[in-house]
TrEMBL record:
Residues covered by the Alpha/beta hydrolase fold-3 domain: 103-177
Taxonomic lineage of the native organism: Eukaryota, Sar, Stramenopiles, Ochrophyta, Bacillariophyta
Gene3D superfamilies on file: alpha/beta hydrolase
GO molecular function, one term: hydrolase activity
The organism of origin for this protein: Amphora coffeiformis
Name of the protein this chain belongs to: Alpha/beta hydrolase fold-3 domain-containing protein
Amino acid sequence: IYFPFHKALGLRTGLHKDASAEYHALTTLMWWGRLFPVSVRRMRFSLGQLHVISPAPVQSKIRHVQDDMKDFLPSIPETQKDHVGIRGLFLETSNKPSEWTIFWVYGGAFLSGDAAGNSGPADYIGRACGMDVFLPEFRLAPEYRVDDFVWDVCLAYRWLCQRRDPSKILFLGISSG
């Protein structure tokens, strides 16, 4: 009843009569989206919930990481003097460190997303590959600039290279990540 209803409705709403029933249903459902415009707040909330729709709950041991890198940097750009720490999540898939590590940079158009929200999909991939996963937190627009994002991710990579073999780190990103 759903598709025939939309097909009939589509003929009366100006949509082309030869369009598929799926197209008619989609345009009817998408119409309501204009009542809820996309905002940075809504994007951040939505992408922060990715772990909820992950195929499986996080099964790995989650270690919250927060470390100061000031002593390990030969020089710090003037614009980054106040941002020399790293934060993130380390998902350990077993009791001993895996040979390879995934460096997971989450997406969100540089506006949204977070390590916690990506922990479900990252854990799913990490466990399937038998690899630990590190998800760095980074600053987001519009509060910060893209070079701040790049600085945070590079700093987190440098931190990870001090703890794992750099030749055995696999980069993985979603969308803008």
